[in-house]
Structure formats: C-alpha cells, structure tokens
Amino acid sequence: MTDMVLQVSGVAVEYGRRGQRVRAVDGVDLGVARGEIVGLVGESGCGKSTLARAAVGLEPLAAGSVTFEGQPVVALGRRRRPDYLRGLQMVFQDPYESLNPRRKIGELIADGAWLGGARRKDGLERAAELLERVGMPANAVDSYAHEFSGGQRQRIAIARTLAARPTCLIADEPISALDASAQAQVANLLSELVDEEDLGLILVSHDLSVVRQVADRVAVMYLGRIVEVGATDTVWANPQHPYTEALVAAIPRPDGAGVLPVDLPGDVPDPANPPAGCRFHPRCPIAEASCSELEQRLLPVAGRDIACHIRSGAVAHARQPHAG
Amino acid sequence: MGALLQVENLTVALPTRSGYQNAVDGVSFAVDAGEVMGIAGESGSGKTMTALSLFGLLPHGARTSGSIRLDGGELLDMNAKQLRAIRGRQIAMVSQDPATALHPILSIGTQMTEHMRHHLGVSKSEALTRAADLLGTVRIPDPEQALHSYPGQFSGGMRQRIAIAVALAAEPRLLVADEPTTALDVTVQAGILRLLDRLCRERGLAVIVITHDLGVMSATARRLCVMYAGRLAEAGPTSELLASPRHPYTRGLLDALPHPEAGGAPLVPIGGSPPSLGRVPAGCPFHPRCRYAQPLCATERPEPKPISDLHLLACPPDPLRAAS
Amino acid sequence: MTVAAPAPLEPPATAVVDNARWRRLRPDTPLPWRRPLALAGLAIIGAWAVMALFAPLIAPDNPLAQNFATLRPPSGAHWFGTDELGRDVFSRVLFGARITLPLAVILVIAAMIIGAVLGGIAGFFGGWVDNLIMRIADLVFAFPGIILALAVAAALGPQLRNAVIAVIVVSWPAYARLVRSLVLSARSSQYVVASRLLGSSGLRVLFIDVRPNAAGPTLVLAALDIGNAVLLLSGLSFLGLGAQPPTAEWGAMVAEGAQNFSDWWVGMFPGLAILTVVLAFNFIGDTLRDMLDPRTARAVRV
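YS: structure for the whole thing
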C-alpha cells in the first residue's frame, strides 16, 4: 500500500437529510499510484462524487482515513489548506462554474504558482507555459473564461491544477458536460498528463465506456460501496459482480447491429435506508435468500476483487462480521 | 403508401445580430409509421431546431421554408389553432429533462387526463383508466397509486417514463424524442430505449430520436440522418452508416466515441469545434475540420446524393468509398 | 485542419469570443447607449451636475438674499418667481442641487461601504456573527424606511448632518443582504473551492475571487439607491428634520411651498427638481440592472 500516492481506507461519509444521517459512502478502500488512472464508476446516487470530494478533503469523514503521500488529508475548513496537500488537486465536472468569470485566465492559473510562493512574474510565465502544455494558445492568459468553449475551459481548469505541481489529480466527471468531440480531446489530454507528469489520477465517471478507454484499473460503486475492483481489461471483458455485468450490458454499442441494451429493472434504493446484506440484492438476477443476510466484502475472483459471496463462493468468509 | 411524416427541403432561419442565419438548411427526410428514425449531430447541428419546427414552436422571429407534411397535411401552412390541434394529438415530444417536461405541482393523473379529455373527448373515469393502463405500459409499478402522485416523488428514470406516458396520452402517431436518455444512467437508459422500441412495434408509433449518442442510435434507430451545421451530411440505414460510414464527419463521430470494442486505444477526436450560427464556412460546412478536404470542398456546396437505394451522402469526393 | 498530435487544438479563441460574450447579456438587450431611458437619465443628471457645479455663475441672485418683493409669480426677472421672504426661487433651486446631489452620492457610498463590509463579514464568517448582523439588518428592514429615518433624525436632532446619518442607517441593510448572499453563493461555488484547494486562505478568496463578482450587482444597487436617497433626504428636510432655514434645500423649499399653497411656484419648482433627479437616477439604475444577467438582477431587486 505504501506505493500509493493517495490511499483511501475504510472511508465513510455522512450527510444529514431531514434530521437523519445518510451514509453516502460506507466503508470504501481505494488507492491510486503515480502514473496510474483509476476509474471510479457507478450510477447517480452511488456516492462516487462524494467519495471523490472526501478524498481531496472537501467532505468530512465519518469514518476511515485518507492519506496523501503518507500524510493525512484533512477536511478543508475555514483555515488555509496545509501546503503538503497542494499536490492533491481536483478537476470539476462543470468548467463553466469552476473558473471565476471575472478574473483573467492567466491569473487563475498563476494562482496555483503564486500560492506556492512564486513571484508574480514567474507565476504568469508559468501560466502561459501551462496553457501551451494543455494545448491552448499562450495568449489566452489575457482572456476571460467565457470567451472559450466548454472543452477549452476544461483544459484551462486542468492547467490551473497543474500549476500547483500535483502528484495526484481527482477528476469528477471531467468530460460529461462537454460535446462529443471535446470529450475525446480532454480524455486524451488527461491520460497524456498522467503518463508524462507521472500523476496518479482518479477518474470519476458514470460512463463506463470512457473509463474503459483511459483507466488502468476500475472500481465499480453501488450505493456507497465498491462492488468490484480490478484491472480495466479484466473487469470489462468478464465482469464478475452481477451489477457490473448489468452496467456493461446496458451500454449501447455504436456498431449498427441494432442490438437493444439490456435493461436492469428497478431503481437504486434510498441511501438513507439501504437494504440489509448485499445492497444490490433487491435488483440482482442471481440473488438468493442468503444475500439479504450476509454483509459482503471484497474477495478475489478471477483476477479482481468482487463483493458477492455467490460468485466468489465465499459464504464462510462472508459470514464473518463486516470489517469496515 | 406515403410516409407518415415527409420533410422536404426544410430551412429554418433565425434572427441574429448579423441578420437571418440558417439554423436548418435544406433538410429532407421521411418517417414511416412504426419506425424509429434517428437524427444525430453535435450541439449546434440544427437537430433540435428541426424538431421544434415540426411543432411550430420555433423561437420568435424564425422564418421557415420548404415543406413538412404530416399524413399529407402541410404543417408549415397551418395557423396556431390548427397546430394546437395537431400537437399532442398527432405528434408529441419527449425532451431531455423530464424534470421540466412535467408540471411539478399537478398530479400525474391530472397531467395525463387533461390531454386525453381535451384531444379525445373521453370522460374523466375513462381517461383515468386509460392513464393507468399507459403507466403500466411504461412499467411504472402500481399505476393507480402513481396517478395520485407528483413528479417530485419519482426518480429521474421513472420521471422520463412518466413523461413518455404523458406524451402518449392522446395517442399521437409520431413521438419526437430529443435526447431522451442523455440525462439518465445507462441502466435506466437501457429501459427507456427498450420501451421506445416496444411502443413502435406494438402500437405502430413512429419515433424520431434526436441524440449525439451513436450508441443509442445503433440500438434503436433503423434509419439515421447525420446533421452538421444545419445540413444533412449523410442519411441511410443505421447498420450501414455505422458499420461503413461514408461521410468523414460520421467517421469522425464514431472514432471520437469510446468504442467498447476498441480496447485501450486512444480516442481520435475531430479537430476543432462545430461552427456557431452565422459562422458556417462556405462550401461544405465540415471542410475546415475534414482531413480529406480538397480545394473544391471550400467552394462547392455539397448536396445529398443517393449512393445506393437508401443511402444519401453529401460529400462529392467520397474519400471513404474505398474503405467501405 | 490537420490533426495535430497528440491533442488537436480547437480553433483560435477569437472564433468563439463574440458568441460567448453575446450569450452573457440577454440576446435582445440593446447596448446601454442605445437605450433612450438611460440616455435621458444620463442627460438629466449631467445637466444637474453642471448646474450644481456652476451655480454661482448661473444663478441670477444670492439664494439667501431677501432682495425682492415677496411671492412674485414667475416672470422675466424671476423665472421661478420669488418666495415669501423675497428670495429668487430659481437661484435657490440651483443652489439646492449643490446640497442634495453630493450628499445623496456620499451617503449612498457610505451606506454601500458599511453594508458591503458588514454583509461580507456575515457571509464569510457565518455562525453567530452572521446571525447578529443579519438580525440587525432585519430589524431595520422591518420598519418603513422613512419612519425609521424620522425616528433617528428626531433622536439626533434636526440638522442636515443628522438627516444624512439617518438615511445611511436605513440604507445599509440592503447592501449587507445583497453582499452576504453573493458571498454565500460564491463561497460554495466551484471556482472558490478550486482556489481553496490550491491553498488560498479564506480571506484571500474573499478579496481576490469573490469581490469582483460582488462589485457589479452592488454598484447597480447603489445607482438605483441614489434616487431613493434623494427622496429620503428631501423628505426629512420637508418634515423639518433635515436642512434648517434659511438653507436652500429642495425638501425644505417644498415645505415652504406647502405653507404658501396658492403661490404654486414656491413649492413646485424644487419639487420638479427632486422629481427629475430621482427619475433620472432610476432610469440609469434600471438600465444597469437589465444589463446584469437575470439571476443577479433578481437579487438586486430585494
């Protein structure tokens, strides 16, 4: 685990809703090493964005810990973020909101350098360099965010995180608000940066086919927990958890074959009142009576870890109290 | 037998600062009963304006020319009252965001029966029975209960099903679905796509699906029109277009997609972004982004020409002919 | 365009500039200098400013000198007539502008600064500080402005300076509310979060990231408020709580006119002066508000 630049261990995140505590994330372990892209996928309400925010310290933890380069990630409060966390940055979903509309692009990017103690002139020079690094003209430093398209803004937002010389990026749905052609451009940019700057990247997305394209490892979340995690090719080619199976089968393929995607009946349950045992069992095609009783934990099956005692054949293990 | 909907040489001009600009420019297509036809394109391709023109709901000041015949009746010649009689009764729309399509403070039952009683002249009890049937058809659990519920009480996927049920309430013959699943998760999307497919087969409903997602197209549409900058780039059977695209833009859209079968190969984005209204290049609108562009592409406006029985192509050089 | 490896450029930024800038304003909004109302407002304010500045040169007479026959109707010698003490009304109206206009501007600026600072503190610190400041603001809001201003002015004693203070007391909460709401929405916005992740302190975010976004709406509110301030200030003087005789102040002059009701010119000309100034500032403020995007416009309307 020590080679991980960012390590999430047993993390739970709660928020209050109408007086009750809702666990949006419930006992998640996940790590990312430098030079690696970990895809975090799941459908709306599964807690993937909450987990991403918790990992950079934007949500307080109800349990567990997050460490970045061996030091704890503290939740961002009123105080200034400690300097050792500057290497851990986030790219947000909506580049229209993550760039201050009233400040020049150059200042926005240079902020990252200035806050690290760079001189004014050096910061602005760095901003111009970084713009070119992400495939933008360097003279964009004097423009404002609204002068650019969605894809260009997302590049600018990425350049700003690079100004802090990060070793780990967390990107929360960085391309889902963009047009088709811009999506591919930004996805490619992110994977290049990971290779060339030796970054760790957690890529949060609802779109499994995007993650499939760029991620080395993939973690599938359902209702606050990871149900399957492993090398992307392995998981994609032969998903083992029934939920991952449903997710992969539901993706329509643009091959012109006219095959309808497979439907997964039912809705995601309310996280305030999750089903007992395996959280997927009410919608699971292979559920058995034991599924509503046994807490699941990740166990290795066919080269990846899944949280399904039926598929892992680990009834005996699963009976043990949930460690989380 | 003539097609249910016949659109010929449709042109929609919108007022802008630099005078009227064609958002839709000479588009022709036809839809038969019981058929799903797809219109694909990025934002700004004119696909939504095409849809709105079917309803006479274009922005204020828009000018149209050409012809839209529904069952022989010319929609562009109709006055507001005649159009109102057609909207909902003959053609209905499902939009991207079910949250805005449904009235938040009217019960589902009221929203559905309003339609039926207005257009079909049935009694209230008859309308309620039919509404419950329809909700059953779109697989809403416990339809009777749902009639007394409000949109806010349902999840996004359920709301989109309800929006479809509301659209179908007055038994229209043509359903226009504008990005019906873009805001939904894949497993929910799969359910909606299957529903649309079933409605076509069982009720002889004609559907126009408008989306930028070629996977969705491949799963549902039998025929496909690819639009770019308000013009038809390529049209034909979906299987043919997606398996062996002839227009460089169609090819580009496919290559930019994370393709489930493509493995970890990097995505190939189309360089540049689509032109905005009023900045459409002369000649072929795609030529500045086209890797096969020839000098004549910058001057000659390409018209869609049949290259086989059902396949239209607006690319005279036809550089992909050899590949297919 | 050739596909430049590895990540092709989108077209030069200028290609989208116009379009984007265009989208920010509402598409049908004509530019400010094309709007007749704003133009009229600017012209009127400009004219008043010139008159106030050059009043000693323009005015035919000393505004305080009782040189003429009393209560003469408007004539070639006295365009606006004379009042009950035989002073030239035209000269008094001109000199009145030298009192009302600068005071209104100064008090609005003062109210804006006080309100913005308190609102910024409330929005930034939250908790009990926020509660304290905003409850005081609510308290002020609970009274009709003129009544509270009356009470304050009466308590401090009838004097022009105290009337100004009274108007500031009733005006600052609007700015506090606006700035607080802007700070609150900016504080949770993604660009602020992104800046904090880079290591900005809360205070730096407030001054560097939030301030430019709050400045526009606040200035618009101030422009809208000047008319209001003129009205309140004149109102207090009219009621005898502001400028004291023999000062040439419009509100006080209208009050004199009210005592000489049959001699209409004594009250009407200062009244018209108030009317034109208030209208002109409102025209300008309204136009500025329309130029803002609809969401902020709603916040300013509070």
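YS: worth flagging: The radius of gyration of chain C is 24 Å.
IM: good catch. Also Residues 1-29 of chain C have pLDDT under 50 and may be disordered.
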